Amino acid sequence: MAENSASNATNEIVLNVNKDVSNKSEDSTSHATASFLQKLVAEVIGTYFLIFAGCASVLVNKNNENVVTLPGISIVWGLAVMVLVYSLGHISGAHFNPAVTIAFASTKRFPLKQVPAYVAAQVFGSTLASGTLRLIFTGKHNQFVGTLPAGSDLQAFVIEFIITFYLMFIISGVATDNRAVTCLFIIMLCFLLVNFVIN
To answer: Which keywords label this protein (predicted)?
Structure first.
């Protein structure tokens, strides 16, 4: 509010300006203010829903004469990652994978002392999801719906190494750089997952 006052034949303008710092974006501080327990719970929930959605799509596809198809399974995995990163990323960083946690710790972008707890939370979440799927999809389990290497052990190791390196290269290069566009990163990661599952 401006007030005019005249003293000694001069005009002064006094501005009463109150800075409103309450409009500060909560998104920038919420990751820092989340407690460690909240971060672990977010990792358990995120890993649970990721494994549940992805593996359920595989089971539904196998039990219903390939109704979901491989591209459909890929889309389920990609969309699950996208939804979980957007909904839980601000709390825990949305690792949902021990490889991501270890990669962030090795590049000093994640505290090394928190790695065991994060990995334990991720293993716990994925185990709960597997157990839930086991309860839901009852019946005789005489089929293995996982992947089997088509070639030698060396070929399987090399392809897994390349695919994991590719995934971690993109995550480390884009997710840890402040100049990267987050929305484009999420879309790129989803397409990457679709490509991995189809191939």
So the answer is: Membrane, Transmembrane, Transmembrane helix, Transport
